[in-house]
Amino acid sequence: MTTVLIRFARANDVGVLLQLIRELAAYERAPDAVVATEDDLCRYGFGPERRFEALIAFVEEEPAGFALFFPDFSTWRGRPGLYLEDLYVRDWARRLGVGRRLIARLAAIAIERDWPALRLMVLDWNPARGFYRRLGIEPRSEWLPYGMAGEALRLMASQDVSD
Q1: Alpha-carbon torsion 85, 47, 34, 61, what sign?
Q2: Which sequence positions are flagged as catalytic?
Q3: Under DSSP, is residue 83 helix (H, G, I), strand (E, B) or coil?
Q4: How far apart are CA 35 and CA 30, in angstroms?
Q5: How far is it, in rounded angstroms, from Cα 100 to Cα 88?
Q6: What is the pLDDT along the chain (163 residues), one digit of tens a residue?
Q7: Single pTM value for the model
Q8: Which residue in 13, 56, 72, 112 has the fewest CB atoms around it within 10 Å?
Q9: Widest CA span of the chain, in angstroms?
Q10: H helices within the chain, ranges in order?
Q11: Residues 82, 88, 94, 96: what is their CA dihedral angle, to the nearest 10 degrees?
Q12: Phi/psi of residue 80, each to 5°?
């Protein structure tokens, strides 16, 4: 029987976490997109003002995947929820229940913290969409993702007229 362990990432896990993030970027066809460093992960995940938390999955003591998450907030519910930024399972560990266990642990964290929702986004081509549907995570097609970064963000900030 395969032993799968899920635990919260620790500061000394940032090297493994960054490697898994890079593998995820390669899987998502953007291998050069990762600019995060171990220092960034330490600062924002394990520093005084944490911006994210992460779970790491191990199969037979070998790192097999991760889930990086943080609270979001619903103005309609008036409460935080859990936003799953990234979930990744190494190819060799797929079909061993690692992804399901990561999602189950995230759901338990949301319940423990009285966060009534778990949200995530999935690339339209990602075969994991079927996995998510089997777990009861459904797409919300009435909502379209929008975002701003880089030069567009700087340009908009330059138009700020607040005091």
Answers
A1: negative
A2: 132
A3: strand
A4: 11
A5: 11
A6: 789 999 999 999 999 999 999 999 999 999 999 999 999 999 999 999 999 999 999 999 999 999 999 999 999 999 999 999 999 999 999 999 999 999 999 999 999 999 999 999 999 999 999 999 999 999 888 888 889 999 999 999 999 777 6
A7: 0.91
A8: 112
A9: 62
A10: 14-27, 38-46, 98-112, 128-134, 150-157
A11: -40
A12: -75, 165
Cβ contact 93:59 at 8 Å: yes
How far from 60 is each of 2, 5, 95, CA to CA, in Å? 7, 8, 15
| Strand partners for 81 | 72
Under 8 Å between Cβ of 85 and 44:
no
Amino acid letter, 98: V
The type of residue at 32 is: D
Q: Tell the residue number behind the tokens 């220092």, with chain if given.
A: 39
The token pair at 95 is 């079909």
- The CA distances from residue 130 to 26, 145, 153, in Å, are 20, 20, 34
Show the domains of the chain with their CATH numbers: 4-157 (3.40.630.30)
Radius of gyration of the chain (CA): 17
